[in-house]
Specification:
The structure holds 2 protein chains of 2 kinds.
Chain A: H1 2-5, H2 28-66, E1 68-73, H3 77-92, E2 97-102, H4 105-116, E3 129-135, H5 142-152, E4 156-159, H6 162-204, H7 206-214, H8 219-251, H9 277-300
Antiparallel strand pairs in A: 1-3, 1-4, 2-3
Helix pairs in contact in A: 2-6, 2-8, 3-5, 6-9, 8-9
Chain B: E1 2-11, E2 14-24, E3 29-33, H1 40-47, E4 55-60, E5 63-64, H2 70-77, E6 80-83, H3 95-105, H4 112-121, H5 137-149, E7 155-159, H6 167-182, E8 186-190, H7 194-203, E9 207-212, E10 215-219
Parallel strand pairs in B: 3-8, 3-9, 6-7, 7-8
Antiparallel strand pairs in B: 1-2, 1-4, 4-5, 9-10
Helix pairs in contact in B: 3-5, 5-6, 6-7
Classes of the chains: A alpha+beta, B alpha/beta.
Organism (chain B): Pararhodobacter zhoushanensis
Keywords (chain B): ATP-binding, Nucleotide-binding
Protein name (chain B): ATP-binding cassette domain-containing protein
């Protein structure tokens, strides 16, 4: 730089000889790239949140419903005590059951209260007896248990919640697959938009390409002048979009403690997932620009 | 170094050049004349591989142009300095950066001292930080010359280097090119600036080639 300073009082330009400055920075294509990357990153945050929430939802439904089962004994009042004793004996000798508990009369009253009010004369009704079963981690063989119960206590009905669980878990899994498909589509859209923007920029800078060829630049160098610019812009845009998207979730009002919407958003380590968006956007931008540049350069002959 | 054998070139389906034989030897000094549109620029572009011939063989530094990959052709451009008719600068970069571009574009560090010396040699030390559009025609031509020779090429091809400069500046450019030739660089200048050709003949032993009727002829007696 000292050598240049000696040039008739001329001051050295900052970044003299920096290849990044070869392509003029102004231009609608570069601005569009940053905006596109930002918008896509913002959408990707939501798609990611949806996919993670769907995953958590499936897991929550699956685990809370599968760790317990309910056994119902319907029998004439005279037989109910005997059948309950028989059922408890069967359960005691069934592997995979951590504990069992017969619901007492007050608990049954609490279960029925929402429908019949607090004054129900529950003692006078022939209610079925309910037994709550808590599974051991390894689980129990519900088919085998049903067969044994059928012979020992014909009035016993086992409900292991599978009937409820399966469609819910399937719905959550489909939701999750859709969310990942959205993430993939956002990536494809970004690649398409950046390819168009890069094509525009390459056409607008035909003079730059001509001059670089004239002075002996290889195709890889010329392509790099464009890929560097677009990659940096895409990453900057994606960081901005990602920050806005995450901020939107952080500030989103939480709708109560229960219900479906509580699960929507990030939790724990999930908050770090969106950090993968900017590098991914950079890779997509790089690949899209390089492909476009090499195609243009080869056509030019 | 550059050899054309029986080269023809079509432009828009019309034969522009036909059966051209040319050899640029190390240290040679050629003028290329002919009426406008006769194909002077085309012949120069054939010499540095920007255009491909429709027939005939071109050899650049011993290698047939036909077999050169794009990268090999780019590398070859480092050995051929080209002064384009309209200079071809990057208008958003300073003059010094434009002159240093061949180093930047080939991924090498810019030798600052050489750059300074070169700019002084072409008399542009004071304009190093100017942008090309702010320069006069003569300054732009001298900057193009500086850029063409910064990699110490073996041959310099100049297309109408004195196209829009005054006679004094034309003389100055010529003396720079003659000086370069004396240091061993082969030079070929496409021009119809006859006074320049006449004055060159007193400084250097130049060969004058003329494009007429699509072929290359040796002229000279009439000058």
């Amino acid at each position: 730089m000292n050598a240049l300073r000696a040039l008739g009082g001329a001051r050295p330009t900052p970044g003299f000889g920096d290849p990044a400055r070869i392509v003029p920075s102004s231009g609608i294509a570069t601005l569009l790239t940053a905006i596109t990357a930002g918008a896509m990153a913002f959408l990707a945050v939501f798609a990611l949140a949806l996919s993670m929430s769907a995953g958590q939802l499936a897991q929550r439904w699956s685990s809370t419903l599968s760790q317990s089962a309910t056994l119902r004994i319907s029998a004439p009042p005279s037989e109910i005590a005997a059948q309950t004793a028989a059922v408890l004996e069967v359960l005691r000798t069934t592997p995979g059951i951590a504990s069992t508990r017969v619901l007492d009369i007050d608990e049954q009253r609490a279960l029925l209260e929402p429908w019949f009010g607090p004054d129900l004369p529950i003692e006078s009704l022939a209610l079925p007896r309910l037994i709550e079963i808590i599974e051991a981690p390894e689980g129990f063989d519900s088919v085998g248990l049903r067969l044994r119960l059928a012979s020992e206590a014909p009035g016993a009905m086992l409900d292991d919640h599978t009937r409820w669980r399966r469609p819910l878990v399937q719905a959550a899994a489909s939701l999750r697959a859709l969310a990942w498909l959205s993430v993939a589509l956002i990536g494809v859209m970004m690649a398409a938009m950046i390819t168009l923007a890069a094509g525009f920029s390459l056409a607008a800078n035909a003079q730059v390409i001509r001059v670089l060829r004239l002075v002996g630049a290889r195709d890889a160098f010329i392509a790099r002048a464009f890929t560097n610019r677009f990659t940096v812009l895409a990453v900057i845009g994606a960081v901005a979009g990602m920050v806005l998207g995450v901020a939107a979730f952080a500030l989103l009002p939480v709708a109560g403690d229960s219900g479906f919407l509580t699960g929507l958003g990030f939790s724990g380590a999930g908050w770090f997932m969106p950090l993968a968006i900017p590098p991914l956007a950079g890779v997509i931008a790089w690949a899209a620009t390089r492909t476009a540049a090499m195609r243009v350069l080869r056509q030019e002959g | 170094m550059i050899r054309l054998a029986n080269v023809s070139h079509d432009y828009g389906g019309r034969a522009l050049l036909n059966g051209i034989d040319l050899h640029i030897a190390p240290g040679a000094f050629h003028f290329l004349t002919g009426p406008s549109g006769a194909g002077k620029s085309t012949l120069l572009k054939l010499c540095y591989g920007e255009l491909r011939p429709s027939a005939g063989e071109i050899e650049l530094f011993g290698q047939p142009l036909r077999g050169l990959s794009r990268d090999a052709l780019a590398d070859m451009r480092r050995r051929v300095g080209v002064i384009h008719q309209d200079c071809q600068f990057l208008d958003h970069l300073t003059l010094a950066e434009n002159v240093a571009l061949p180093f930047v574009a080939t991924g090498r560090p810019v030798p600052e001292a050489d750059l300074r010396e070169l700019l002084s040699w072409v008399g542009l030390a004071g304009q190093a930080e100017s942008l090309p559009p702010t320069l006069s025609g003569g300054e732009r031509q001298r900057a193009a010359l500086a850029r063409a020779v910064i990699l110490s090429p073996e041959v310099v091809l100049a297309d109408e280097p004195t196209g829009n400069v005054d006679p004094e500046m034309s003389q100055r450019l010529l003396s720079l090119l003659v000086e370069l030739n004396r240091m061993g660089t082969a030079v070929m200048i496409a021009t119809h600036d006859l006074p320049m050709i006449r004055s060159a003949k007193s400084m250097v032993s130049a060969r004058v080639l003329r494009i007429a009727d699509r072929t290359l002829q040796t002229a000279g007696a009439e000058l």
